[in-house]
Structures are given as structure tokens and as C-alpha cells.
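Box S2. Input/output pair 1.
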Amino acid sequence: MKGERAILWTVIIYAAIVLTFTAISLLASPLGSQTGKFRELSAIPDHLLYLAAFGVVLGLLGSLLYRRLDLNLIVLIPVLVVITDLDHLPSALGIAQPIRPAHSLIFIITVIAVLALVIRRPDIEAATLSAFFAHLSVDTGLFPPFSPISFAYYELSEYQAAFVALAIIAALVAGFLGRRRLTHKLQQPP
């Protein structure tokens, strides 16, 4: 899939899977795990700003390191970093829910598998990984790494350095793969 269409479809697929994981978790989780609370309204803009800013930095890092300004990376990564929080929607609507149902390893494996089947762009898959780990690295508190199969919660803070490293590595890989894809495309006869 080409350019902006691939980016748009990636955002749509990602958001749809976030909402699907949220719905599955609402139905499959035990009542004791449905404790998620929405943060105070006054804290939301700052949190979203931190998420988006880190996403932009990663997009710039991935694109500039390989000496090409890739607007797709600079837009895609922060958008995905922010929309990962769509899984807080039930809580925002006053519905008790499990904590962060789309902040799981099963979620990101599902997203990457669907993108590999539908979009077929390794650079976009790497950018998506970068966005996911960037989001986890900014969050604090509890998360369920195996949601919706298990709702056992673990402290995010213990893994923040690893998540930052994974986000940076994935952004660099996305930039490299994007540059390689562009170079290959330019070498093709018209």
C-alpha cells in the first residue's frame, strides 16, 4: 500500500483493534479487575502533549538519522502513541473497566500481525511498535501485559527504561526500512 493511504489505514486498523480489545476486556474480565479510572480532566491535555511530543521526537529521530525527512513517520508515530489511550473510553463514559486493556503485548502482536497481512509495509510495522512502546514508556502505574487473556497487573515503572529503548530502536528500524523502501522504489524502472 502506498504513502498516505497506508498511514490512514494503519491509524484506522490500530484504533479499531484498541476498541476491540477494550470491548473484549469489558466482557471477558473478572469484576475484580474492572477498576480502571479515568484521570482527572485537567491532567489529560498535559498527558496527551507528552505522548505526542515523544512520538514526534521518535518520528524525527527515525527519519533524520537516515537523512530523509519522512513526514509519514513524523505523523504516524505520535498519532498512534496518543490513540492507544482510546482504551480508556469506557471509564470516561463512567463504565468500570479493566485497567489499560490495549496496553498489552497480545494487543501489539495482534496489531502487527494484521498490519503485516493488510498493509504489508515493514517500516509502518516498526513505526507502530515504536509508538506502542513510546506510549508505555510515558505511562506510569499498572498495566495488564497479557490482556485480554489474563488481567494480572504489573507495575509499568519497572520497565520504562526498556520501553524507551524499544521505542527508539523501533523508530530507527522504521526509518531504515523506509529509506530502503524508497531507495528500492527509485531504482525500479518506470
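Box S3. Input/output pair 2.
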Amino acid sequence: MAVFPLTDKGLSNQQKPKLSVVTSSRSWLRSVGIILVLLISIGFFSRMLLSAMIVQRQSKIDNFSESIAELDSANRSLMFDIAQLESTKRIMRIALAEPGEEFEAISGLGMIIPEITTYLDPISSDSLQGWQWRQINSQEQRQ
């Protein structure tokens, strides 16, 4: 008859393996090392991502600054052109030019310089004493 070691109770008592819990300091050091390497790599990746975002936003800010400078330069140029067009000398030249003459692509107005210039005096409070004040638009006048 064949003897099976799993079913034979006499044999199993003699050959039981001795098992014991092994505490190795290497296992937890390895786990801590792996965790530290993972944390350092995540930190490095986060730093690179943050740097890329900062560079991208700085380039946008630089583009905005350049466009603002260009628009400011164009605005100053246009303001200078407006000042030249509004100058008193230019307006007088156009006003005194004959209607058939063209000055800067604008035909003259043919105005003349008067012999005498009369200026009006401003109204003082003394001249307003006899003035009757009344409201022009009122609800009573409409009805």
C-alpha cells in the first residue's frame, strides 16, 4: 500500500517546517527609498510644469506690452497730425485763400480780414437788475 504524505499523520508531525516571522530592516528601507524617489520625481515634474506655465504667460505679457507700445506710438503720431490740422495758421490760410485756390486738397473759403473788429462786453450783474426771469418750459404753459 502506498503512503501519501498528506494523509499520513505520523509522517506529517515529524517533517513540519519551522516557520518564523522575519523582520528585515531592508524591506522598510526599500519602501521608504521608493517613496522618496517617487516624491522627488513628482516634485521635479511639478517644478518643470510650473516653469513652463510661467514662461508661457510671460511670453503673452510680452506680446501685450509690445502691442501696447505700438498702439501708443500710433496714437502719438495721430495726435500730432490732429494738432497740425487744427493749427491756427493752417485754418487762416484756408479761410483767406480764394475759392478757386486749393490748399492741401481743400479749396479756399475766400474770406476777407475785416477793417474793424468789434468785441462784445460781458454781462455784469448790475445790468441784470431789471431782467424778468421766467421759465420757458413749464407744465402750466402746456395745458
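Caption for Box S3: Strands lie at 102-103, 106-107. The first strand starts at residue 102 and ends at 103.
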